[in-house]
Amino acid sequence: MFTIELTLKHTAMPLSVQKKEQSEAQSLYGSIAENLRNNSGHLIEITCDQQPHKRISVLGSEIAAVQIFEKSGTATASGRPPGFFALSSDQ
Fold first, then answer.
1. 51: Cα separation from own chain's centroid
2. Computed from CA positions of residues 9, 38, 4, 50, in that sequence, does the dihedral angle turn out positive or negative?
3. Sign (positive/negative) of CA torsion 49, 51, 52, 58?
4. Containing domain of residue 23, as a range?
5. pTM to 2 decimal places
6. CA 20/CA 86 separation, integer angstroms
7. Which position has the higher pLDDT, 53 or 89?
8. Is 89 part of any domain?
9. Which residue intervals of 1-91 are DSSP H helices?
10. Which residues pair with 47 in a beta bridge?
11. Is 78 inside any structural domain?
12. In terms of Cα–Cα distance, which of 25, 33, 18, 84 is closest to 63?
């Protein structure tokens, strides 16, 4: 199972969907990354293979980052999947 995780601007909670096939996950990741490159304001609709009724719609211009990772049987030391970490200089 492959997870595609979206980090949105001004939002601490990431959004994620799962895809069974690596090719589908890579294709979705590529299309979202292309939207990031073009700073597209198009609506992106994503469905989840693990939870068929789960659907996400988000404006492409609101996506700050996207990552893809494979869910494996081993967990990290914290028990959480890999993710983004950022420090803000805003005080």
1. 15
2. positive
3. negative
4. 2-70
5. 0.72
6. 29
7. 53
8. no
9. 22-38
10. 55
11. no
12. 33
Nearest of 45, 51, 57, 35 to residue 1 by alpha carbon = 51
Residue bearing tokens 């490159």? 37
* Structure tokens, 77: 């030391």
Residue 14 φ/ψ region, left for φ over 0, alpha for ψ in the -120 to 50 degree band, beta for the rest: beta
Structure tokens given for 24: 């589908």
Q: Do the domain assignments include residue 77?
A: no
**Which residues 6+ apart lie within 8 Å of 4 measured at CB?**
16, 17, 18, 19, 25, 28, 29, 32, 46, 66, 67, 68
Instruction: Examine residue 41 and state whether it is found in any structural domain, yes or no.
Output: yes
Tens digits of residue pLDDT in 71-82: 775 545 555 555
Other C-beta atoms within 10 Å of 84: how many?
11
Each residue's pLDDT tens digit, 8-49: 999 889 999 999 999 999 999 999 998 888 887 889 999 999
**Number of domains the chain is built from:** 1
